[in-house]
């Protein structure tokens, strides 16, 4: 952070402003990223392009995931795959505010529920968390794992919104 103190101050101010914003609903710091995902996912739903959007996402991340796969292969430790997909991945932890980690397993709550409830109520989106999980999150993570060279299992949708990713042999 040294030399980036100004950026840190602006970031903390953004977090405070987001959490203080109670208009319409209590905002979380990931709301803007979540809504941006909804725009893409609603387009995929409206045009029956779930497969294409997942394939595009996987292809976009292929170089990153292949590099992570080399780290897994060189170290012989598949745990690096889970770290790279969650703990050490800004795209994950800026979207998912809390991820439980234990060897061979990561567990988190879907980040979409709060904003989706409000957005559906006002008619902005008609997505459901279950379809996002089934048609986007799960196949996308399985595709990432293929490129990394590990086998994972992603839990099916559960009404509590909890998602479990587990290494399998």
SSE order and pairing:
Elements: H1 5-20, H2 31-46, H3 50-60, H4 62-75, H5 79-85, H6 90-93, E1 99-102, E2 105-109, H7 113-121, H8 129-148, E3 151-154, E4 162-168
Antiparallel strand pairs: 1-2, 2-4, 3-4
Would you kindly provide a written description of the structure presented here, covering whatever features stand out?
- The structure is a single chain.
- It is globular, with a radius of gyration of 17 Å.
- The mean pLDDT is 92.
- A four-stranded antiparallel beta sheet has the order 1-2-4-3, covered by helices on one side.
- Helix 2 packs across helix 3 and helix 4 packs across helix 8.
- It is of the alpha+beta class and 169 residues long.
How would you briefly describe this protein structure?
With 169 residues, this protein is an alpha+beta fold. It contains 8 helices and 4 strands, in the order ααααααββααββ. It has helices at residues 5-20, 31-46, 50-60, 62-75, 79-85, 90-93, 113-121, 129-148; strands spanning 99-102, 105-109, 151-154, 162-168.
Strand order within the widest beta sheet: 1-2-4-3
- Please estimate the helix content: 55-70%
Instruction: Note poorly predicted spans.
Output: none
Query: What spatial form do the alpha-carbon principal axes imply?
Result: globular
Number of strands: 4
**Helix/strand order, N-terminal first:** HHHHHHEEHHEE
Please report the number of helical segments: 8
> How far is it from the N-terminal to the C-terminal residue, by CA?
39 Å
Task: Tell me the β content.
Answer: 5-15%
